[in-house]
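Hey everyone, long-time lurker, first post.

I ran two proteins through the pipeline my lab uses and got sequence/structure pairs for each. Pasting them in order. The first:
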Amino acid sequence: MTINLSDMQARAITAIRDWYENRRGEQQIFRLFGYAGSGKTTITALAIDALGFEPMTPGGLGGVLFAAFTGKAALVMTRKGTPAQTIHSLIYRVSEATPEEIARVTEDLAALRRDLPRMGQAERDFAMTRIAQLELRLEDIHQPKFLINEQSTLRDADLLVLDEVSMVGADMAHDLLAFGKPILVLGDPGQLPPIKGLGFFTEAAPDVMLTEVHRQAGDSAILRLATLAREGLPIPPGAHDDHVWKMSRHDVGPAQMLQGGQVICGTNATRRSLNTAMKRAAGFGADYPTGSGEKIICLKNRHDLGLINGMFLTLTDVRQDPGDDFAFSAMVETEDGLSIAGRQSFWRGEYADHVAFDPERGRREWQVRRGLIETSWGYAITCHKAQGSAYPTVVVFDDGFGRTAADRNRWLYTAITRAEWGLVILA
């Protein structure tokens, strides 16, 4: 297939090639930025081809590695023919506290508390300090620690290409840079930054900024509205083409939203409210999945099972074991139609939070969560969860997300650009 490049695109390819061949020793990062539809992916593929590189094969030496922040973004890249993985799986190994370590810390803390009344003042002061340390340790002992994997395949790569980098923070970026490999980052400065802090790669000036829109038709209503959102300009109500509308959210109910595609909102509180209303409108009144066709989304990667954060799942043969208030089991099929072998166990906490939200539930139930698959209702998801994904049709439920005007513009722009051809904005 012949690709007709614009002058801007041709210059971008030349700049990438010049950086890698002549300047990568003093400039480890090359930033290729562009807004939605500007052709970053196409330009990257052509630049890699011009450099003569191939994707790195498992166990091989040299070549290009591709990675993204979210598991869903990496999955989308892989489906489109570019083998990719998450940054976490590429450069980190997981270290978790063993049951023996947890028991030891718990016993030490209990012993100190038990002996405290019999201690003298000096001994008591020391014990109180130790108790405080152990309490802090127990507070986060259930959280997995991500350690640099010195044996990462990145050591043997010629080039790393990072896509969807707006959510990569400073700590992860510095860990990537520590491998000393040249990194080509593809960024959209209009997208949401990490939940905490700023996007390390997108906060710096780009080496190339693509401003010409090439995806879809030049008069795409979705891209027009995305541009208005990014620039903080008002989006007029009404029809913008046959498949793109802005309407009042008070005129559209949960049953109608079910027909509009993937619903994207701002906050988790809105997500829980919409999910509850939409699943009831779909005819599912139970508080927990029954395996009757409910829309379920995976919340955390389970690479051992091939489950990806942001992937939709179909559950069947759901069973609630008597006396178990924390888990249920089911047979699982992924959105790709792949069946997971064997019956799997799921944490109930997210579904319980849709009934009565408890901000301490996750921390309180951390021991029972270990080893369980974490899922939720997927009728509505937050924009942060949607990053890296694209859906044929999208309903953007504007709940006023954003502490600042800039945050709000980025949120709305990111949400709108998740839609491929159909879009309804509810404001």
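...and the second, right after it:
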Amino acid sequence: MSFYESPLFVEILIISIYVLLTATLLLTVWSMLRSLRLRDRQPKTMGIPGGKIAWGVFALMTGLLVGTYLLADTSYIYTNGKAFTDPLWLRISDMLINTSIVLISIAVICVIAGAMSLGRKLKV
């Protein structure tokens, strides 16, 4: 029996994953709420309402994460001859992959739109 197959170490590993996941989620929520609260007090910067943009990004990101979680596939995955059947982790992994794909697509579209807009401004 190797180190990674020992029941004691597997339990410690699983518990530490849950602790780190919970700590990460709590720290992320605290950080975002603190940032949004501080940003609301700031005046507009060059006519741009930073607080409203921050709340909009927060709402869209939360909606995207919830939407991709609800639409996630929970069909079993076979790895090394064993079935991975836990629906929670299947949904979470699918949510993170699909959210990444959507965000990268949005970034590419924004870069193309910005380049086209810059090209029009330079011609004028």
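Reply from user beta_strand_b:
Welcome! Quick read of the second one: The chain has a mean pLDDT of 84. The beta strands are 77-79, 82-84.
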